Amino acid sequence: MIALIDYGAGNLTSVRKALTALGADFTIPTSAEMCSQAAGLIVPGVGHFAATAALEGEWLQAIKAAVEDGVPLLGICLGMQWLFEGSDEAPDVQGLGVIRGRITKLRNDPARRLKIPHVGWNALQFRTNPSTALETAPRLLSGLPSGAQVYFTHSYAAPVTDECIAATEHANTFSSVVERDNIFGVQFHPEKSGDAGLQILRNFLQACGC
Amino acid sequence: MLTKRIIACLDVRDGQVVKGIQFQQLRHAGDPGELARRYNVEGIDEVVVLDITATLETRQALARTINAVAREIFLPLTVGGGIRSEDDAAAAIDAGADKVSLNTAALRNPDLITTLARRYGSQAVIVAIDAKRLGGGFGVFVRSGTADAARDAVEWARQAESRGAGEILLTSMDRDGTKAGFDCDMTAAVSDAVEIPVIASGGAGTFDHFTDVFTRGHADAALAASIFHYAESSVSDLKRHLRDRGIPVRL
């Protein structure tokens, strides 16, 4: 059973629809204790980083404990940003902190007509950095080619760290996919990224043993 | 590199696509879900469902239509036409829309933009502007283009952005349905005035019209309805045409 965490940041309809289409068994937990029972956790979310303040306290502790126990965790968009220590968008709000680093605002470039927010389809450039923190081949991008296009809509993004397995270029290059052991994050919306997005969700379900 | 988006618009009335369907098999079906499925296979980047009747009686039919389209595609889905209140927007989003498009209601009550942006995020709020050339500028019209709003399109786009809109859908009333090409001057004027993406609409007749609006028109996305209903004008052919002219697209 996958636990889809609803903390009021945007609507979950499209994530639920995608999980249903993939035949996944999922629930929306009503208490933080349910996280430890799940085969996998998904933290979705759109909008302002301040919305993740709803997870501070028992939810954050429960999710952290589950992740330390080896439960796979996928953060989507704002949910991926939350995996980091914090964000310039809401400096007072604490992230989960399972990945080192801080979320910063994307840069624009009027001369090249690169706008903020970054909205639309952009490419995942796979990284083959030998210093990667991964001990095994990345699982989340299995079956996809480097350069695969996915749908983004955001103004803030994560830095390229050792956990970054795919980066994306706008006015600056940011981390679009992170993976380390059982921790996964995607800055884009796999539930709105056509076949490539469904493949990524399928890969996560596989990592959960679902 | 961020690609230029191609968006298909389905004009829907009482659950059926009603405009310009010349694709043989679909003529009799007029089914939004079926059309959305075909566009998805051809590589469309987004779908807009526009409820052109938008009366209270058709609200439930609209929810069923949104649901039927959302079931077929895992792409961003926008719903517009007659969204007048927070409740209308919530109903569309609950039915499966990712974004709502506000037009007359946003002009009448700009706070609605802010309310919806706070509740769902700016990425979920598109402000649609219907405009035409007027006295050297671009005038905004409302109520399906029947009433002069006495507003300048560039000024209104800037205000919509400051209120929390995530994108502008700009339709040229002069060009709509003419197949004479997008109004590139108007699109560029609005696109250069705001930071948020601008979707150009109205006038698509040939593939080169899309090339023009992405280059001269500074558009971030282009929307069309009837051109895609022709079997010979597939979305994939259009995208290959654009790619061959150096415009980044998702293929």
Write structural notes for this entry:
- The complex is a heterodimer of chains A (about 210) and B (about 250).
- Chain A is α/β, with parallel strands linked by helices.
- Chain A has one domain: 3-Layer(aba) Sandwich (Rossmann fold), CATH 3.40.50.880.
- Chain A has 4 helices and 13 strands.
- Chain A has helices at about 15-20, 60-70, 80, 195-205, and strands spanning about 1-5, 25, 40-45, 75, 85, 100-105, 120-125, 125, 150-155, 155, 165-170, 175-180, 185.
- In chain A, the strands form 3 sheets. Chain A has an 8-stranded mixed beta sheet. Chain A has a 3-stranded mixed beta sheet with strand order 5-6-10, with no helix packed on it. In chain A, strands 7-9 form a two-stranded antiparallel ribbon.
- Chain A is globular.
- Chain A starts with a strand and ends with a helix.
- By secondary structure, chain B is an alpha/beta fold.
- Chain B has one domain (about 5-245): TIM Barrel (Alpha-Beta Barrel), CATH 3.20.20.70.
- Chain B is about 40% helix and about 25% strand.
- Chain B is built from 11 helices and 11 strands.
- Chain B has helices at about 25-30, 30-40, 60-70, 85-95, 105-110, 110-120, 155-165, 185-195, 205-215, 225-230, 235-245, and strands spanning about 5-15, 15, 45-50, 75-80, 100, 125-135, 135-140, 145-150, 165-170, 200, 220-225.
- An 8-stranded parallel barrel of chain B has the order 1-3-4-5-6-9-10-11, surrounded by 7 helices.
- In chain B, a hairpin with a 4-residue loop joins strand 7 and strand 8.
- The longest helix of chain B has 14 residues, at about 60-70.
- Chain B is globular, with a radius of gyration of 17 Å.
- Residues about 20-30 of chain B have low confidence and may be disordered.
- The interface of A and B includes residues 14 and 113 of A.
